[in-house]
Amino acid sequence: MRIALTGAHGVGKTTLARALAEKLDLPLITDRARKAAALTGIAQVRELRQDKMKATFFQYTVLVQQLAWEAQNPDGFVSDRSVLDLLAYWSAYGLADNHSYMTLCFNQEYDLLVYVPIEFQLVGDGFRDTELNFQQRVDYLIRQLFTLAFSVRKKITVGGALEERVQAVMDALPGLRRKRRGEKVW
């Protein structure tokens, strides 16, 4: 089962992804942006809105890492980000249209794509961009992309407290699971 969460920064995707990975006993793929930032020498993502060359290199680094981690877990995972997010940030940073980048993103497949909307006040952590307008722009772009025909078997939106979000995902799983010999069924 390939489950990916999508939503702007600071909406609780990582918390939800951890809870789902534990409940479903699936590998967790955490946000690759912080790893890419360490590799590319970026202290805060706010820098990316000011330097398009740096933003382009950063976004490719995140995408390559995300695709690699997803490929390393062919039997399933829970990811606290999807390639949909990467497309939204690409646009939010004002980067030029890039066919190869978009193709890599649109060709990625998920069994379940979970949209997590903005419900909480954005809290800074020293890395994420804390400008509310930027978070809202990213959210808008993600919502627009969410409606497109991705290679996704099912898409849902979750909200409320963590327990409600987890339950909404669990409720969406029946019918998605392809049972293989020896696999447990949720």
Name some characteristics of this structure.
186 residues, alpha/beta
| Strand elements, count | 5
Describe the strand arrangement of the main beta sheet, using strand numbers.
Answer: 2-3-1-4-5
How are helices and strands ordered from N to C? EHEHHEHHEHEH
- Uncertain spans, ≥5 residues at pLDDT below 50? none
Q: How many strands, what sense, and barrel or not for the largest sheet?
A: 5 strands, parallel
Terminal CA distance reads: 11 Å
Q: Hey, roughly how much beta strand do the residues contain? A: 5-15%
SS content category: alpha/beta
Helix content: 40-55%
Shape: globular
Rg over C-alpha atoms, rounded to the nearest angstrom? 16 Å
Helix tally equals 7
Rounded mean pLDDT is 88
Provide a brief overview of the structure.
By secondary structure, this protein is an alpha/beta fold.
